Amino acid sequence: MSDTLIEPLLLDPSVEAKAPVVSRRESTAIGWIRKPGLVIPVLIVLLAIGFAVAPGFFASGDPLSGVPADKLQGPSLAHWFGTDNLGRDLYTRFVHGAALSLTATLVAVGIALVAGSIIGLLAGFVGGVVDAVLMRIVDVLLSIPALLLSLALVTALGFGTINVAIAVGVSMVANFARVMRAEVMRVRGAQYVEAAFSSGVQWLGVLRRHVLPNSYAPVVALSAVEFGQAVLAVSALSFLGFGAVPPTPEWGSLVSEGRNFLANAWWMTTLPGLAIVAVVISAHRIGHEIERNNRR
Questions:
Q1: Which of 102, 105, 89 is nearest to 48 (CA)?
Q2: What are phi and psi of 270, to 5 degrees?
């Protein structure tokens, strides 16, 4: 094509170069793909979820029965995590234990998210005496170490996976309440909220249409960050014997069962422990990335 044909096209104002439009969700997904450091954490978390959803697909053996002749065998192709003192395959027990451990984690995060959001919403939106009373309760919860509070609650509630989940969830409520309160107070002082009140909109309508939709995102991002901490707390209480009744496998109890065999069967504690650490670190990495993207 000659220059005389190209120049009119370049000078014609009706001919515009249109850049491809990329939505925020698509740009976030592209950003995640371009970060190699997130690939392994995402795969680890997805694998752990797969263990919980379909344990039989990843380990078809029986986690409760073993072969006495195979007891205390080291890691091998036949037994990836080795075997315990009863000849049970530790990899199979770890895979089947993911269902209870991750279920308790999800219940704990759900309790903390719902209860903390309600407390923070009321404190930030109503204010006054309600804010003062609720935040003093939150301050008391924050003054007690989370593991100690969980331990006290599960001792009062009794043993069991659900009780462990409730105890861990209550110990995490304060963090969600503070974040929700801060976001609600920020949105509460916005001009569009004041305009809604001035135009006669009832407080319930303002809360539903303006405050909640603009306040929940940081709290949801916090739940992703706290997921890894909840996995660690649930495993710790299970390690101390407050989880499911043996021989039902749980991640924390698997580590606990190998304490007496560290001298001649290091894999019983080390390999399940490293797997738990990998899940916790991966969940923290993903959660912080979600929180970082939410702030942009």
A1: 102
A2: -70, -50
